[in-house]
Q: What sequence folds into this?
């Protein structure tokens, strides 16, 4: 199935095109490319392209959990503690439905990162949030 990225920026569309032909859907890989560059809103948008047709199917909650994770970091960027915590909780609950490694993604390590960020959010008021560029999470499948 070919997915289009018509609603995405030309830069994102070009990135998706460059990821075609691998073991995974280019949108799945594009999610991690965006996420790891702190482009969390774009990560959400890219993965939504393949999540929407999966609703009610095997990867539904997996994609939904990753989208919620990206959404949590959109809220962290905007210093919105409550929504960020809520989305981290939802993401973790959805990812718990899958085995420890799913789609080559280490979900145990990812859930550990979710826990770490949740604890960090609970211990600092939003106006004291300072996140160094190299401190943002990096995630991705192991190929």
A:
């Amino acid at each position: 199935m070919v997915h289009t990225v018509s609603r995405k920026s030309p830069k994102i569309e070009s990135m998706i095109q460059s990821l075609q032909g691998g073991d995974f859907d280019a949108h799945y890989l594009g999610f991690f490319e965006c996420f790891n560059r702190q482009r969390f809103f774009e990560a959400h948008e890219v993965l939504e392209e393949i999540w929407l047709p999966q609703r009610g199917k095997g990867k539904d909650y997996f994609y939904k959990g990753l989208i919620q994770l990206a959404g949590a970091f959109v809220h962290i960027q905007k210093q919105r503690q409550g929504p960020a915590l809520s989305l981290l909780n939802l993401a973790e609950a959805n990812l718990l439905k899958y085995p420890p490694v799913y789609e080559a993604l280490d979900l145990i390590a990812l859930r550990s990162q979710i826990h770490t960020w949740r604890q960090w959010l609970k211990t600092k008021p939003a106006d004291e949030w300072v996140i160094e560029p190299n401190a943002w999470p990096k995630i991705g499948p192991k190929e």
